[in-house]
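Lecture notes, continued. The same structure-token format from the folding unit now serves as the input rather than the output. Read the line below as a description of shape only.
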């Protein structure tokens, strides 16, 4: 346990003295000022109060790295605030007290758990739902049957705060509104009706766009006749007004259950697709809900989610339903992390990490500065053929050594079984003959007893073996049955039975009494001999059987180890390959941007960042959800998955720790900020409460002099802070202007030229990469965005992509490196001003004489730390730049909306030719104006973002200055806010003097947290690694400006943008 530092005494002369955070308020060696007689020696109680008022343990707790301790400290702080608020309630009529109650309420609200959203993306069948279930340790929370509805519905999973047993599992099913459904119905009806006479055949073909549209309509309207649909007897409005549909549009349905099985059954009623389910009612009787669902929010009590993590299963942003597509896009915008899931059998070959769901998606991640928040998950590692895996292993691989050992052990098993076989056969044979022996003994004994006085004995005994022993006969019969056909098999069996019956037909034998007695003795002697032989054989078999059992166990273990080694070998090969592909994908984007900037001077050998570091920092997990679930006691109907010897081998526990590390790091940020603000609040309240007890007694003239000095120092501090703010944000404006705004003209010109190329590429013949008529028209009907059977197309994204290519790298550098570094420099300058202010206060003997000076001095140190914290400002910056970079595309959508509408209405002879003509003509007309609008909207949002950011920083700084002003003035002119409420003051006094004891218990007694991936120091406020670590360029191997054609502007901010005395030049 870390013990708090003991208070230290100040040292040095008055001019050089620094206020120590935990020093005593007044050193005993210091003479009192001449203006006031010295206060008598403090009592023990007062001295103890001074120690507690410094909140030593709260200061230690703020520096903790354990998120568990930070959580516990936050809980303790919240309880302290609640107790103080209750004590203040007695005096809430006083305006000053009411303000304090409001401040406490605001501070309590800041401690609320912050959501950490992690988006989960991947292709159909990649195992997203299975991975999510495994991470949450639930067997069937998210449907995993691969049905169509599961891939179409956005599913958000967060912690369940309800403690009710019947609400252990909860869900909110949000349905789209009537307006959105009507819009989609128009598109679907158009798809069904826009054929050329062959539509009827395509309606039932789920592999065609027409078939998909028809199935979606029939899913919601099962009683709709096909002929009526084809003849257009229903309009979109008619269908929206259907009572059953109208009843759920825009609504939210709630589901709750106490068990996962009941919960899953209820969920299936809403999101299931009947084409995948057996035992359903007739098709015409069922209305399905899945096409109408916008998002499903699931709430479950999972430790992984408890710290604020939210997992979102995203089907993609190309959904044919505009409402769902918009929701998916918004989730991606707000994501703190992104999990890309691909089956391990395809992850490397398909280059999932490098291609990352398409070029436009990768470029958006680059704009958002989100590359450092990507995690790649290779699923289905249990899908392995050991035979195939062994072929790809090197000669010295562990699996080969284990397999060789397995072969040796299997050979030993064969030898041992061969050694055991004759002994077991002999034991079996002895068992049979001993059985016959017993029967003969019984028969002879019975005959002797029945003979009485007769000299002759008639013995009934088994017949003699005429041809072969019984064992040989049975073995012969088995061979015959195996070799003969089924028809002859029965006959053969019957003949054998007759033969055996003849062989062992009983016969009678007449012996003399003496011969019978002699026979009895021989039989008993034979029985003894056979028993001795059998027992000896049994003793010899016992160690052999034990050996064989051990060998079989070893073989089973070796098979598991061989499979385990193969799995680990494949994982070990896949992980670095995927990391390298990820880095190669970023390299491609950087090189593409460099070519766009200056193709003549492009040098492929130049590296804009350290791509090896980029690769090494990508988290990759190779997981088996099914093996984890089986080892955890779930999936009872599944057989064990070979090769996974522990839960850790499945890598799901590692993924869980990684997930909790993301949320805990962000939670730790929230807790530290709360504890820092709590320290300010308690210290300020302490000063105001305790100063009312024994304020510093000063002559009016001295008090006026000190207040005047404080006012002057505070005014200068505020003025200097305002100057720093102005200079800092002027630099930010220059950075954005010179790196982004000034590039708009070139970017617009290039993008305007590329528009015509994009439009002409759509019109080419299909075999040249063009679009067929139905796909082209369907895309226009959907305002340029269509996800058909041939894959997703987004005309708007294809048009805007050349513009974004020109700006992406510069944008990433500005908002992940240059401006964040400028904010850090500003924060350091603010903290230095506060430190200078403290030095001024420390040189005022009257202030230092106060018994509460140490408390106020510590408060100033806390505020200095708070000003150094730029996480909140960077979060606001990141949010603003994400909103700004998403304004390019809407301008294109608006500019192209009229031509989309016109093309979507075309039909009849020559319609395709007219569509292509309208598109090319319109693109030529609007190309320059739409890009000017796009960049103008973006520039406007960037300007607004800087204004908002500056306002936030100014409020943050002004708050610190005001707190200093109030606290230092309280040393000179205290005020009793509880003048008429002595009881309230005493309650608050007791709570404040006992506050640090609560934090002491947390520091000393709260156990260390489990070994969770601690990313608190490696991740920024948005839950991603700092861009400086991720994207910092390598040191060039040659001069930066040699043949770069202006590329140096990306590596170093403009000289005019940053003053050398205030911040270092960002690189990269």
């Amino acid at each position: 346990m870390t013990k708090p530092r003991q208070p230290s005494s100040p040292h040095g002369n008055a001019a050089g003295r620094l206020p120590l955070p935990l020093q005593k308020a007044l050193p005993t060696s210091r003479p009192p000022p001449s203006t006031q007689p010295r206060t008598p020696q403090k009592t023990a109680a007062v001295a103890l109060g001074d120690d507690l008022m410094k909140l030593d343990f709260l200061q230690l707790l703020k520096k903790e790295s354990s998120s568990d301790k930070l959580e516990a400290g936050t809980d303790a702080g919240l309880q302290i605030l609640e107790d103080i608020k209750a004590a203040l309630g007695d005096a809430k009529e006083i305006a000053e007290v009411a303000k304090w109650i409001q401040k406490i309420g605001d501070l309590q609200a800041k401690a609320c758990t912050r959501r950490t959203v992690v988006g989960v993306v991947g292709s159909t069948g990649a195992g997203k739902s299975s991975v999510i279930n495994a991470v949450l340790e639930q067997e069937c929370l998210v449907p995993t049957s691969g049905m169509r509805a599961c891939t179409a519905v956005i599913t958000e999973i967060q912690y369940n705060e309800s403690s009710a047993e019947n609400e252990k599992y909860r869900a909110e099913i949000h349905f789209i509104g009537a307006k959105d459904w009507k819009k989609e119905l128009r598109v679907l009806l158009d798809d069904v009706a826009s054929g050329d006479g062959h539509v009827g055949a395509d309606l039932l073909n789920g592999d065609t766009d027409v078939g998909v549209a028809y199935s979606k309509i029939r899913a919601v309207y099962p009683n709709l006749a096909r002929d009526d649909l084809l003849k257009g007897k229903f309009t979109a409005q008619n269908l929206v007004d259907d009572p059953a549909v109208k009843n759920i549009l825009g609504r939210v349905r709630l589901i709750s259950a106490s068990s996962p099985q009941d919960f899953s059954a209820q969920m299936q009623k809403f999101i299931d697709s009947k084409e995948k389910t057996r035992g359903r009612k007739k098709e015409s009787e069922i209305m399905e809900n899945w096409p109408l669902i916008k998002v499903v929010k699931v709430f479950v009590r999972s430790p992984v989610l408890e710290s604020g993590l939210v997992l979102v299963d995203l089907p993609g942003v190309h959904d044919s339903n505009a409402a769902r597509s918009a929701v998916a896009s918004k989730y991606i915008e707000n994501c703190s992390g992104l999990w890309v899931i691909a089956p391990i059998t395809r992850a490397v070959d398909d280059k999932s990490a490098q291609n990352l769901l398409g070029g436009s998606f990768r470029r958006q991640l680059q704009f958002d500065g989100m590359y450092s928040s990507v995690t790649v998950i290779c699923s289905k590692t249990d899908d392995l053929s050991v035979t195939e895996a062994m072929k790809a292993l090197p000669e010295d691989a562990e699996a080969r050594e284990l397999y060789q050992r397995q072969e040796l052990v299997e050979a030993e098993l064969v030898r041992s079984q061969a050694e055991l076989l004759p002994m077991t056969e002999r034991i079996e044979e002895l068992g049979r003959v001993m059985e016959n022996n017993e029967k003969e003994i019984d028969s002879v004994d019975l005959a002797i007893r029945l003979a009485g006085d007769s000299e002759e004995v008639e013995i009934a005994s088994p017949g003699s073996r005429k041809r072969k022993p019984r064992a040989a006969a049975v073995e012969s019969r088995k061979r015959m049955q195996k070799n003969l056909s089924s028809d002859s098999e029965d006959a053969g069996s019957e003949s054998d039975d007759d033969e055996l019956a003849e062989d062992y037909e009983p016969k009678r034998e007449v012996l003399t009494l003496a011969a019978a007695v002699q026979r009895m003795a021989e039989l008993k002697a034979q029985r003894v001999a056979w028993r001795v032989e059998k027992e000896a054989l049994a003793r010899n078999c016992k160690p052999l059987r034990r050996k064989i059992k051990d060998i079989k166990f070893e073989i089973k273990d070796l098979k598991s180890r061989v499979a385990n080694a193969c799995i680990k070998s494949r994982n070990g090969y896949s992980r670095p390959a995927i990391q390298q592909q990820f880095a190669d994908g970023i390299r491609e984007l950087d090189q593409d941007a460099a070519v766009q900037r200056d193709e003549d001077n492009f040098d492929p050998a130049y590296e804009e960042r350290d791509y090896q570091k980029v690769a090494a920092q990508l988290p990759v997990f190779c997981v088996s959800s099914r093996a984890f679930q089986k080892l955890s006691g779930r999936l009872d109907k599944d057989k064990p998955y070979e090769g996974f010897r522990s839960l850790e081998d499945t890598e799901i526990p590692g993924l869980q720790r990684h997930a909790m590390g993301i949320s805990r790091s962000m939670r730790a940020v929230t807790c530290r900020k709360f504890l820092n603000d709590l320290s300010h609040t308690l210290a300020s309240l302490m000063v105001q409460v305790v100063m009312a007890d024994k304020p510093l007694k000063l002559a009016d003239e001295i008090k006026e002099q000190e207040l005047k000095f404080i006012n002057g120092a505070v005014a200068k501090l505020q003025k200097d802070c305002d100057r720093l703010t102005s200079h800092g944000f002027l630099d930010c404006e220059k950075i954005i202007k010179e790196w982004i705004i000034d590039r708009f003209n070139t970017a617009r010109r290039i993008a305007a030229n590329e528009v015509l190329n994009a439009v002409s590429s759509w019109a080419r013949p299909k075999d040249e990469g063009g679009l067929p008529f139905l796909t082209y028209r369907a895309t226009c009907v959907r305002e340029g965005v269509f996800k058909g059977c041939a894959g997703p197309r987004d005309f708007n994204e294809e048009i805007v992509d050349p513009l974004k290519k020109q700006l992406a790298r510069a944008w990433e550098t500005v908002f992940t490196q240059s401006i964040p570094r400028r904010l850090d420099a500003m924060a350091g300058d603010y903290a230095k001003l506060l430190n200078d202010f403290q030095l001024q206060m420390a040189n005022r003997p009257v202030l230092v004489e106060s018994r509460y000076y140490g408390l106020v001095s510590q408060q100033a140190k806390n505020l200095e730390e708070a000003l150094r914290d730029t996480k909140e400002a960077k979060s606001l910056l990141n949010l603003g730049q994400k909103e700004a970079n998403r304004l390019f595309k809407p301008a294109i959508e608006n500019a192209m909306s009229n031509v989309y509408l016109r093309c979507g209405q075309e039909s009849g002879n020559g319609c395709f030719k007219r569509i292509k003509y309208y598109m090319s003509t319109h693109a030529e007309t609007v190309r320059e104006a739409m890009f000017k609008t796009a960049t103008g909207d973006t520039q406007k949002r960037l300007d607004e973002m800087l204004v908002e950011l500056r306002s936030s920083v100014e409020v943050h700084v002004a708050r610190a200055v005001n707190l200093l002003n109030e606290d230092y003035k309280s040393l000179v002119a205290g005020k009793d806010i509880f003048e008429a409420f002595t009881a309230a003051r005493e309650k608050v006094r007791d709570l404040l003097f006992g506050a640090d004891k609560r934090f002491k218990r947390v520091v000393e007694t709260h156990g260390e947290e489990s070994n969770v991936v601690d990313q608190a120091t490696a991740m920024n406020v948005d839950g991603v690694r700092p861009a400086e670590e991720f994207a910092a360029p390598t040191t060039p191997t040659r001069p930066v400006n040699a043949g770069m054609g202006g590329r140096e502007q990306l590596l170093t901010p403009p000289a005019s943008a940053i003053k050398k005395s205030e911040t270092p030049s960002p690189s990269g």
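Point for the exam: The chain is about 60% helix and 5% strand.
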